[in-house]
């Protein structure tokens, strides 16, 4: 049996990512015009792999610098 990783949006995250996060109509019932320049991604707590790697490397570099100081190599 061959396994392949899931690629896509999990059902529990779908509403978070694709729901309207502002009112689509004014109080008087008129619709709001959608403006691309006002649009923004709704990612919540999502951390991209690039950001995660930068954070991890930063932490590791901190540990490495401590070791250098402990061993008087700086």
In a nutshell, what does this entry contain?
The chain has 74 residues and is an all-alpha fold. The chain has one domain (11-70). The protein is built from 2 helices and no strands.
Describe what you observe in this structure.
The chain has one domain (about 10-70). The chain is mainly α. It has helices at about 10-20, 50-70. About 0% of the residues are buried. The protein is elongated. Helices cover about 40% and strands about 0% of the residues. The model has no long low-confidence stretch (mean pLDDT about 85).
Features:
elongated; mainly alpha; 74 residues
Major sheet: size, sense and barrel closure?
Answer: none
What overall geometry do the principal axes of the alpha carbons give? elongated
**SSE order, as H and E?**
HH
Mean pLDDT: 83
Instruction: Identify low-pLDDT runs.
Output: none
How far is the N terminus from the C terminus? 53 Å
Supply Rg: 23 Å
Number of helices: 2
Percentage of residues in strands: under 5%
SS-based class: mainly alpha
Count of spatially separate domains: 1
Helical content (DSSP H or I, runs of 4+): 40-55%
Can you count the beta strands?
0
């Amino acid at each position: 049996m061959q396994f392949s990783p899931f690629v896509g949006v999990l059902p529990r995250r779908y509403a978070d990512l694709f729901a309207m996060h502002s009112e689509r109509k004014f109080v008087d019932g008129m619709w709001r015009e959608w403006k691309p320049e006002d649009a923004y991604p709704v990612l919540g707590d999502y951390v991209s792999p690039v950001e995660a790697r930068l954070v991890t490397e930063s932490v590791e570099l901190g540990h490495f610098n401590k070791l250098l100081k402990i061993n008087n190599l700086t």
